[in-house]
């Protein structure tokens, strides 16, 4: 009976933890690149949107429905944005 209440909350906590994990690993990378001034602002915007995509993919439940890890669409999205930025 207790598990019926605790288990869904535990799953929700794990989902938020994975989202925080993703953002916490994307943000330092963005800051390092910004401070090194190795890449322009377009790349930084790309990385931020990559993190947002990964978090949205994870929290929306698409990952559990499709079985596709949340980093795969984030990386694909990142490459698409970089391609568009390089073409313009």
Q: Top keywords for this entry?
A:
88 residues, elongated, Na/Glc_symporter_sf, mainly alpha, 4 helices
Report what the structure shows.
The chain has 88 residues and is mostly helical. It has one domain (2-87). Helix content is 86%, strand content 0%. The chain contains four helices and no strands. The protein has helices at residues 2-36, 41-59, 62-66, 71-87. Helix 1 packs antiparallel against helix 2 and helix 2 packs antiparallel against helix 4.
| Main β-sheet description | none
Q: What percentage of residues falls in helices of 4 or more residues?
A: over 70%
- Low-pLDDT segments: none
**How many discrete structural domains?**
1
Strand elements, count: 0
What percent of residues are in strands? under 5%
Identify the overall geometry.
elongated
SSE string, helix = H, strand = E? HHHH
- Main structural class: mainly alpha
What's the total helix number? 4
Q: What is the first-to-last residue Cα distance?
A: 58 Å
Whole-angstrom Rg: 16 Å
**Mean of residue pLDDT?**
67
């Amino acid at each position: 009976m207790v598990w019926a209440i605790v288990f869904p909350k535990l799953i929700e906590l794990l989902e938020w933890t994975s989202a925080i994990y993703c953002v916490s690993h994307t943000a330092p990378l963005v800051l390092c690149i910004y401070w090194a001034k190795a890449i322009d602002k377009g790349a930084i915007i790309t990385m931020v949107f990559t993190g947002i995509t990964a978090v949205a993919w994870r929290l929306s439940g698409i990952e559990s429905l499709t079985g596709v890890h949340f980093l795969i669409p984030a990386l694909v999205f990142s490459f698409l944005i970089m391609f568009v930025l390089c073409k313009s």
